[in-house]
Amino acid sequence: MLLFIFCHLATAGAALVIDASAGQTIFEGGVHREENFAPPRLLDDLQVDIAALGEAGHFELAGPDMRHAEYCDPVDRPPVGDWDAFFALWERLDMVRDQLQPELGPMLPEIELHYVRYPKGGYYSRHVDDFETTEPRRSRRRVSFVAYLTPAWTDHDGGYLRVFYGDRYADIPPLPGSLVLFDSYQIHHEVLPTNNERFCLIGWFHTPCDALKSNCTPTRRERHEDDDFTFGARVYLNTPAAAASSDL
What we know:
Elements: E1 4-6, H1 22-27, E2 31-34, H2 40-55, E3 60-61, E4 67-68, E5 70-72, H3 83-104, E6 110-118, E7 123-127, E8 139-148, E9 161-165, E10 168-172, E11 179-183, E12 188-191, E13 198-208, H4 220-223, E14 234-237, E15 246-247
Parallel strand pairs: 2-14
Antiparallel strand pairs: 1-6, 2-11, 3-5, 4-7, 5-6, 6-13, 7-12, 8-11, 8-13, 9-10, 9-12, 14-15
Helix pairs in contact: 2-3
């Protein structure tokens, strides 16, 4: 089920909510991970929101073809949970969208998103979030994001996000409160099987098709003048100890 949220928040002159390198990292075909994007108190409140929506039966099982997970519309919802916590996260994501536009081009003030629950044994097979098509459409997914909302996580819990470039890959742990962003068209990815229940908010920032050079199909030439540019699966962290990228 697709959800488009219409919201414009005044963010001009606001402080950066993610590391300043994020837009360039995504532009170059990398993956950006922002630790502590959702502060601990907000993370606690979001977990209350998710639990209430689950108790109200608002999660629905996704199609079984490529994934085993349950999805929830966080806006069109029963009067339960903590709307203020969800709105605070939504507001921060809109600030991220605004921050990324100088490097990645115009993106619509519509955010497509879902809460997702992966039960024990949950997974999502390898895929990309946007694809080439000749069908007319108003917009396409430009940037994919995952905000991890599980209260605690260990290596044994599984559920890593695996991102690919060719025959190389990197595994990104679903650390509580972290945010992962990447190009929706370029980055193949999958969710590895979970050994414990885990929650996240997933979504996409859309770009208008009239901002692209051809029928809403992204290409490398649209992003880079140099045909010899080498895309890499790089994970950048916003912590000084991990400031160097992990080039695979």
